[in-house]
Amino acid sequence: MAIQIKSLEDLQKMRKAGIVVGRALLLMKEAARVGVTTLELDAIAAKHLAESGATSSFLGYHGYPNVLCASVNHEIVHGIPNERPLQEGDVLSLDFGAIVDGWHGDSAISFGIGVIDPADQKLMDTCDESMWRGIAAAKVGGHLTDISEAIQLYIESQGSYGILREYGGHGIGTEMHQDPHVLNFGKAGFGPELKVGLALAIEPMITRGSATTKVLSDDWTVVSIDKTNGAHFEQSFALLPDGKPFVLTSLDGGKERLGRLGVEISDLLK
Question: Which of 126, 138, 217, 224 could form a disulfide with 158 if both were Cys (CB 3.0 to 4.6 A apart)?
Answer without folding.
Answer: 126
